[in-house]
Amino acid sequence: MPKTLLCGLLSLAACAPIPRSHSTITGDDSGFLGALSFSHQLSKSTVEENTYGIRLDLEGMGGNITQNIPTDRTVQLDDVVLTGPGELDLDFNYRSATLGFYMDKTMGPWKLQGVVGLAHSNLHARGRLGGLTDSADLESTALHLSGDASYRFGSSTEVYYRLGGMPLARRGEATIFQTQLGGRWKINQTLTISAGMQSWNYLRKRREGSPGPSGMDLTLSGPFLRLGFLF
After folding, report:
1. Got the DSSP string for 171-217?
2. How far is Cα 32 from Cα 72, in angstroms, rounded to an integer?
3. Which strands, in side-by-side order, build the sheet including 73-76?
4. What is the tens place of the pLDDT at every residue in 93-130?
5. What is the pTM of this model?
6. Pairing mode, if any, of strands 216-230 and 33-41?
7. What whole-number distance in Å separates Cα of residue 37 and Cα of residue 226?
8. Region 194-213: what's the mean pLDDT?
9. How buried is 199 (Cβ within 10 angstroms: 0-12 exposed, 13-18 middle, 19+ buried)?
């Protein structure tokens, strides 16, 4: 290889920019969760120790986080690469729909409930950094699992703790966990109201070697209100 050509190639290699690493978008915020629940009981009696049925849950909430992005890092939501240094300002709105099969087991004042089904989630995120903006709708569909334990006071009031979410996901899909601690009040035979505090975590890993959104680790905590309808 001629010396001049070799020198030219070495010069180009020396001038080529070093690729910047992607940062995981992380942060936490407080926010309000609103939810609707529509249940249809398939077992015949409400006084049996075990009851079961199908349920549709709809949830929605939103938040905002800020994160410092160093000089040697970038973040990406869709097709715009946002490059540090600077402060990333991210607004996000989360919506989910879950169709599942539930089963209750009553033991005196205690009740255990398990739910298995299919959930579809949508996270609309919009980020701003250094005068540039990028937004994306990140969707996931996966198995939903949840369970709760409740203790009844009288005939219409109970307290409960719930743990659930979408724990199994492929790389590039969202893993979601949610905990709730609250009270449930039976208004009549078809309407219940639940309220309390909840914590939600959204974890998405970046697909290695391909363009697309950065990894995310978002947490949102705060009050929730759920209206439940039994048909």
Report:
1. TTSEEEEEEEEEEEEE-SSSEEEEEEEEEEEEEEPPPTTS-SPPPEE
2. 35
3. 21-22, 73-76, 81-83
4. 999 999 999 999 999 899 999 999 999 999 999 999 98
5. 0.85
6. parallel
7. 7
8. 86
9. middle
